[in-house]
Design goal:
With about 170 residues, this protein is mostly beta strands. The protein has one domain (about 1-20, about 35-105, about 115-165): Immunoglobulin-like. The chain is about 10% helix and about 35% strand. The chain has one helix and twelve strands, in the order αββββββββββββ. It has one helix spanning about 1-20, and strands spanning about 35-40, 50-55, 65-70, 75-80, 80, 85, 90-100, 100-105, 120-125, 140, 145-150, 160-165. A six-stranded antiparallel beta sheet has the order 6-5-3-2-7-10, with helices on one face. Strands 4-1-11 form a three-stranded mixed beta sheet, with no helix packed on it. A hairpin with a 3-residue loop joins strand 5 and strand 6 (about 85).
C-alpha cells in the first residue's frame, strides 16, 4: 500500500514542480541536457495517454538528476529534468511507467473524513513497467536528441491494492 501512496505522491510532486517557475538558474553541476521524447503506443497502435514516464538511470552519477514527463493525447511525453529543464543527461536508462486509477471515496458529512466504502488502486499499465527492476523498456541517450516509440502491449487494469474500512492500511 505504501508503494502506491509513494507513487501518487511522486506524481503530485512532479506536477507541482512542472507548474513552478522556469526562470530559475540551473542547479550547480547539472550536466548538459539532450532533448528526449518518449512515445507510448498500445499493440493496436492507439496512443497511451496520461501516463507518467520516468527515466531510471542505469549509468552511474545520474541519480541526482530525476527526469520524467507525462504523455499527452497522442501518447507523446517530452522528458524534463528536475521538473522544468527540457531534456535529460546523456546515459543509459530504464523507462518506468505509472498510471493509477483510484476507485472509491471518502464520505464526509460533518467535516471529518469517514471511510465507508473500500478504496481500490488499479495500475493502468502492466505492472512489469512500473518498476526499474522489472521494466523491459530501456533507453540510451547520446549527444543528439532522441525520440523513441515503445509498444506497451494491451490496455491494462490491474488491482494493486485495496483499503477496507475498519481494517486500517
Amino acid at each position: 500500500m505504501k508503494s502506491v501512496y509513494n507513487a501518487v505522491i511522486l506524481c503530485i510532486a512532479f506536477v507541482i514542480s512542472l507548474l513552478s517557475g522556469c526562470d530559475k538558474p540551473r542547479p550547480d553541476g547539472m550536466p548538459p541536457l539532450v532533448g528526449c521524447t518518449i512515445i507510448l503506443k498500445y499493440s493496436e497502435g492507439q496512443p497511451v495517454q496520461d501516463v507518467t514516464v520516468m527515466l531510471s538511470p542505469v549509468s552511474q552519477g545520474l541519480e541526482k538528476w530525476p527526469s520524467a514527463g507525462k504523455t499527452d493525447a497522442s501518447g507523446k511525453a517530452k522528458i524534463v529534468t528536475y521538473g522544468q529543464y527540457p531534456g535529460v543527461p546523456e546515459g543509459e536508462y530504464k523507462v518506468v511507467l505509472k498510471k493509477i486509477e483510484i476507485v472509491g471515496e471518502v464520505n464526509s458529512e460533518d467535516g471529518t473524513a469517514q471511510q465507508t466504502e473500500p478504496i481500490e488502486y488499479y495500475s493502468l499499465v502492466e505492472t512489469d513497467y512500473t518498476k526499474a527492476e522489472t521494466t523491459p523498456l530501456s533507453l540510451t541517450v547520446g549527444k543528439k536528441s532522441v525520440s523513441e516509440t515503445f509498444d506497451v502491449g494491451e490496455e491494462a487494469r490491474i488491482l494493486v491494492d485495496r483499503f477496507v474500512p475498519g481494517r486500517g492500511l
